[in-house]
Amino acid sequence: SLKTLTTLNLSSNHIGDVGAERLADALRQNTTLITLGIERNRIEDAGAQHLAHGLQYNTVIRILDSSTSCF
């Protein structure tokens, strides 16, 4: 069950802007994820904006690794 997921590493999965938008949708509703790794995913400005908006509603994430994601 995703209801207890605390760590998610999507590094090097090339999720791009579309994947970032879907991830942002999930982040708005998530209440358990503490660590998120999205480095090296070819996320551009549009995807970064979606993620930023999704993270505004998520008060749980404490560690976000987005290094070399092309923002």
Automatic annotation (TrEMBL):
InterPro entries: Leu-rich_rpt (IPR001611), LRR-containing (IPR052394), LRR_dom_sf (IPR032675). This is Uncharacterized protein. It comes from Adineta steineri. The lineage of its organism: Eukaryota, Metazoa, Spiralia, Gnathifera, Rotifera.
